[in-house]
Structures are given as structure tokens and as C-alpha cells.
Amino acid sequence: MADPPDPQARKIIHIDMDAFYASVEQRDNPALRGLPVAVGGSSRRGVVAAASYEARTFGVRSAMPSVTALRRCPDLVFVKPRFDVYQQVSRQIREIFAQHTDLIEPLSLDEAYLDVSSNRQAIASATQIAQLIRADIRRVTGLTASAGVSYNKFIAKLASDQNKPDGLCVIRPEQGAAFVAALPVKRFHGVGPRTADKMASFGIVTGADLAEKSEQWLLTHFGSWGSYLHGAARGIDNRPVRADRIRKSIGGERTYGEDIWAESALRDALESIADIVWERVERNEAQGRTVTLKARYADFQTITRARSLGQPVKGRSAFGQIGQSLIDQILPLQNGIRLLGLTLSGLSHSEDEDEADIRQPELPFG
């Protein structure tokens, strides 16, 4: 068993805004307050970019097809996204962070890690700093944020989700291993539904189950990620907060409950994914030159096709067209498609963009 974490370890805060896009819309339009709100398009191929907590009680989630969201919540109110406003609010939040530390690692417009081990006000308590930040966010933006405070990034992120919305959770070094042991592994950042299913097939449901596996066993079954999982299951994560981390790609993928066989359905599915990915590209002010298609067949064979340009992809239409041209390369289908993904890489960013890679292994489309 690994030694417990050093009590003198770093002081990390993970800040996560509560239902960010939807909350901004409810803030700016009082008529929407208390209603189930979805930010996104309501058309047949529309996708929910964000859902208010009122909508979430009906099972509406981000990245869910709009038609599915409406079935779950017939009174759902759709609002078109205003990414320029979200970016402006995100800059206000970033300025609040910067009052306390330079070590800020954004993950998206609405969440970030902060290392406050050494901070501008020389405040000894990371919990106090988190309280000040949350109060300032409410005062400046009129929005609420949840915070996780701990000694590493892995647990701080888990903690920020523990008491949402408008919550604060503090996990001290001596509490870390027990906190992780009690959680389902599907709560762990990076463990998508497919990985959770794989773990369940080995009898791994909780952090305690994961901690029973040796590092070598985890390396055998989960590749290089096994070492990270071995430490995480014991409350150990030595990754630093990296203020200079550059995103490598932006993308998303979906696993389907029923395999796709028809070309028309495959092309429609790709357009839905392209909508989500391009919204991320725009709100993060990124540009990229390479588009990669990923397809996994019913027999779990996985293939990729990519196209690189001499200049950045110009707009959503071009992004979708390139994706469709990559679909051409895998037609006609010899087997059903169970997973489809699209990624933009070879990114460049505006000078204030230093966020981490947000290409997710799997998107919760519903």
C-alpha cells in the first residue's frame, strides 16, 4: 500500500461554474428563471449545449440531441447560445482568479484549477481563498460557482462536484484515500461509460475496488493509464497545475445504442457531432488544420481517417464538409457503426487561451 499523501502537499482549488451557459441566460432574462432551460438548437439535428438545473431534473443533459431532450421535458425552453457573452463572463471570472494566483489551468470557459499554495494575499487557508473567490464571482457576475479544495487536482475536481450547485467541499490529505474509496469509479474524471463498463466487468465499481488491483494488473488491462489509476485509487495525483498547458485538439464522439448501417443516418450523426465540436472551437477561439474521423464498428474494430490543410479550417461548413469527405472513405459500410467521432487538431489559439486538451474520450449524448 502506498504511503499516505504528504500533509504539506500543494493546495489546489477546482472552481466549476453551476450550469454556466443556462445560468447566464436566466440571469439576463428574468422570465427564464425557475424554468427548464436548454441552451442550443431546437431543430431535428439540434443539440443541447447546456441545461439548467430545472431541466436536469427531467434528465436533460448537455450534448443530448434536442429531440431527446424535448421528449424528456416537453416544456423545455430553448435559447440560442451567445458565446460572446459567455466568453466575456469567463474573462471576468479569470480576473478574479488572477487576484489570488498566477497558477491557473483553465479546462473550459467555466472551470479551472488553481494552485494557491503560494498566493498573492499570503492567505494560509485554501478554503478561505475558495470562499473569497466564490463570493467575488457572485458579486461580479451574479452567478454561482462550486469549489473543491484539496491537495491534488484529481480530488479537487471530484470535490467540486460533491455539493453542487453553489457548494464547497474540502478534502484534507488524511481524508483523501477514504474519500476516493467510497466513490463510484464512473465519477472519476476520464472514466467514461465504456471504461466504467469495462471496469465493472472486472468487478471494479468503487474506488476501493480499484485500489485492490496492483499497478501491473492495471497496466495490463488499461495501458499506460494504469499507473495514474493506481495512484488515483489511493488519493495520489502528482500532476502540477500548469498555467502554460496548450490544448492539442478539440473533439467529441458518441457511442450509439443501436449500430448505424445506413449512409444517410451516418451522415446525419456526423453533422450532429460536428455541431457540438465546432461550438467548442468557436467559444475557445481556436483554429486547427487537421480533421480526424474516428469510427468503431460493431465488432469493435476502430479506424481513423484524417485530412490536413495548409491553412486553418474556415468555419463550421468547411469542417462538416471535410468530415463528410472522410465518411466517403469508409463507404460502403461492411459492418454497423457503434461509435463515431470527429476531432480538430493542429490548433493555434488567441494569446489568452492556454487551456488543456478537451478532446473527450466519450460525450454523454444521452
Automatic annotation (TrEMBL):
Reactions mediated catalytically: DNA(n) + a 2'-deoxyribonucleoside 5'-triphosphate = DNA(n+1) + diphosphate
Species lineage: Bacteria, Pseudomonadati, Pseudomonadota, Alphaproteobacteria, Sphingomonadales
Site, as annotated: Substrate discrimination: Y21
Protein name in the entry: DNA polymerase IV
PROSITE patterns per record: UMUC (PS50173)
EC main group: transferase
Function statement: Poorly processive, error-prone DNA polymerase involved in untargeted mutagenesis. Copies undamaged DNA at stalled replication forks, which arise in vivo from mismatched or misaligned primer ends. These misaligned primers can be extended by PolIV. Exhibits no 3'-5' exonuclease (proofreading) activity. May be involved in translesional synthesis, in conjunction with the beta clamp from PolIII.
Subunit composition and interactions: Monomer.
Keywords recorded for this protein, A-Z: Cytoplasm, DNA damage, DNA repair, DNA replication, DNA-binding, DNA-directed DNA polymerase, Magnesium, Metal-binding, Mutator protein, Nucleotidyltransferase, Transferase
Species of origin: Blastomonas aquatica
Keyword Secreted included in the entry's annotation: no
